[in-house]
Design a protein that fits this description.
This protein is α+β, with helices and mostly antiparallel strands. Helix content is 56%, strand content 17%. It has a two-stranded antiparallel sheet.
Length: 107
């Protein structure tokens, strides 16, 4: 989802990075994954809804306005429900896939 959303060149696969660096004259290319697929999925769950819309008309702006209108006690209950939902997600086992990797290339 992130790759389609951003259309960004730094979201290449590990193999695509190796090919790109080799074409640029780099000899040794090493990669070190550091962010699990489960963690990236959680990031997407949190971030994606906030990206919907355009400029000041993003859903995040609407949610902020609605949040200001909700009484403190109700807002705290709502935040607690969201936190519990996210914690349940974190309890799921990871499938050992990674979505973020550091690439080190030497010339």
């Amino acid at each position: 989802m992130r790759r389609r959303q951003l259309l960004h060149v730094n979201l290449l696969t590990e193999h695509e990075w190796q090919v790109a660096f080799q074409k640029a004259g780099f000899g040794e290319v090493k990669s070190f994954p550091y962010l699990s697929g489960k963690d990236c999925y959680l990031w997407d769950m949190l971030d994606f809804p906030m990206c919907i819309g355009l400029g000041r008309y993003k859903i995040s702006a609407v949610l902020r306005l609605i949040g200001r209108m909700i009484p403190d006690s109700s807002r705290k209950r709502m935040y607690q429900k969201v936190a519990n939902m996210l914690l349940r997600h974190l309890d799921k086992p990871d499938n050992d896939t990674f979505c973020a990797t550091v690439i080190v290339a030497q010339k």
